[in-house]
Specification:
The complex is a heterodimer of chains A (474) and B (126). Chain A is mainly alpha-helical. Chain A has 20 helices and no strands. Chain B contains 2 helices and 8 strands; from the N terminus they run αββββββββα. In chain B, strand 4 and strand 5 form a beta hairpin. Chain B is elongated. Chain B starts with a helix and ends with a helix. The chains are: A mainly alpha (474), B alpha+beta (126).
Amino acid sequence: MTQDNALLAPSTGYLLLALFSILWIGLGLYWGRRNKSFEDHALAGRNVGLALGSATAAATWITSNTTMLAPQFALQLGVWGMLAYSTAAFGLILFAPMAKRIRKLMPHGYTSGDFFRLRYGRTAWAIFLVFTLFYSLTWLVSMAMAGGILLEALAGIDYVWGMTVILAVCVIYTMRGGLAAVIGTDFIQSLIIIVGIVAVGFAVLQNVSVDEIHANLSTSKPALLDVLFPAAIMAIFNNLLFGLGEVFHNNVWWSRVFAFREGVGNKAFLIGGLVWFPIPIAAGFIALASGALGVGVPSPDMVGPLVIANVLGEVGAVAIFVIVFCSLASSIDSLLAATSDLVTEDIYRRLLHPAATPEKLKKVAQTVTLLLGLGTWAVCVPRVGTLASVLFFAGPLVGAMIWPIVTGLYWRSANSVGAIGGMLLGGGAGLIAYFQIGWFVASTVGTAVSMVWVLACAIFSRSFFDWKMLKEAV
Amino acid sequence: MAPLLFSASVAFAAAPEITSGHELSSDTGHVLVAWEADGPATLSISRDADLGDAQPLYQGNQQSYFLSGLESGEYYLQVVEASGARSQPVRLSIEHQSLTKALWLTLIGAIITLGIVVVIFRGVRR
C-alpha cells in the first residue's frame, strides 16, 4: 500500500509517533534512574509486584502479531483459526506453576540459559543458545520490519524512518531504564491496547450484526465456518505448542520470573494469560466481519487496519496506529532487554569474564542492547520481505525445547542425552514437516519427536539429578 | 487526427491480466489474486469455465484481492475493466488437506498437550 491510500495523513502519523516516542523515552529515563547494578538493570531489583507483573506478562505477549496476525489467521482459517491463535494464552497459563518452581529451584538465577547450563551441561546449553538466539533475533527483526511496514501502510511514513524511530525509541529507553522501564511502559501499553481492541470490537458490532456476518461467511467463505476445516484443525494444537515453546524457553519470560517478587510469578502469569486470551478472538472477529462490511482485502496482513478504518474512519485509523505502536514497542523492548541479558550473563559473564563486577555487567548489558538495535536496524533496512517469514522456522525449534524444560524442572531422571537428542531430533523432524506438509504441523511434529526421545531417555536413565546444583551462587 | 489517435489507443489498449499465475491452486482454501488493469476493475468468480454464473468479489482500484474460505473444487477468476476489457479466465483449484491426516495430527497434538499438563500439575502436587 502506498502513501496515496494510507489510512492517516502523514502529518498525523508523525505527530503521534513523536508524542509516543517522547512519552516512552521520558518514562524509561525516569524508571531507570535508580539502576546501579546488573541485577537492578536486568531484573528490576527482583521486586516487581502483582499489578505490574500481570500487565507486563499480557503486554509482552500482545505483539504486533496479535493485533495483525490474529485477524489474518481468522481470515485464512476461520473460526478455528481465531481460536487457534488464542490458544497461545496457555503458554502463559501453564508457565504460571512453572514460574513458582523456577523461582524455588533457582533463587539466584538470571536467565533461561542458566537453567540449561546447570541442569543439562554445556552441550545442551550451546544448542539452547543457538535455538533461542535464532528465535529471538528473527522475532526482533520481524517486529522491527513489521513496525516500518505498518507505519508506512497506516500513515504513509517512509519505511526506513518508521522502522528507525520505533527501534531507536525502544533501544534508548531499554538501555537507560533496563527491565524496570520495560515493565513500566508495558503496563501503560497493555491498558491502551486492551481498551483499544475492545472499543474497536464494539464499534464493528454497531455497524454489522453477528447474523449478517454469519450469512456472508456461509455464502462467500463457507470453509471458514467448517468445523472440519483440515488446515484449521491442524493449526489448533500446532499454535498452542508453538506458544508453549516460545514462553517456556525464552528469556523474555524467565527474566520476569526472576524479576517478580517472591510469590508473584504464579499469579501474574495466570492473570496475564487470562487477560490475553480474548484479545486474538476480538481481533479475529474484526477480520471475519470484513466481507459483511464490504471491505476488499488486498493482502491478508492488512485486514485488521482496513476493517477498523472502514468502521471508524479517521478515529479508527488513529486508534489502530496507537495500538500497533504500543504492541510493537511492548515486544521490541522486552526482546532487547531479555536478549541483551542472555548475551551478558551466558556469554560475557559465564564464558569470558566470570569476575566482572555488577557495575561492569550493567554497562555490558547496555552496550549489547545498543549493538542489538544497530544490528537489527542494519538487517531491516534492505527490507527483504522473506526475512520475517523465517520466524516461522522457529516453531519446531521452540517446540522441541518444551519437553527438556518441563521434565528438567520436575523429574530428577531427565538427563542431558534426552535434552540434547530431544532438541536436535525434534527440531530436525519439525523442519522436515514444515517443508513437506506446512507450517501448521511443524511445531506439533517437532514437539512429538522431542517428547518420545526425552521420555525414553528419562525412563531408562540410571542417574538422578541433584536439585541443589541449580542453586548456583551469584 | 484526434479520432485516429483515439481509435489507435483503443485498438492497442492492453487487456487486464491476472498476474498471480495462469493456474492457481491451494490446499488451504485461500489464495492472493493479483492483477494489472487500467483504472477500476471488477474481480469475479465462477464455478463454470464459461463464467456463466460469475459472482463479483471486488470492485475498485485495488490490484489484488485475498480470497479465502473456499471449499474444495474448481473455480474460475476473471478481471473486467470499466471499459469492458476482460482478462483471460484463470483456473483456481482448491483441494483441502486430507481430513484423516488432520485429525490424526490433532490427536497427536492433544496427547502431547495433555502430557505436558500432567507433568506440570503432578510436579506441582508433589
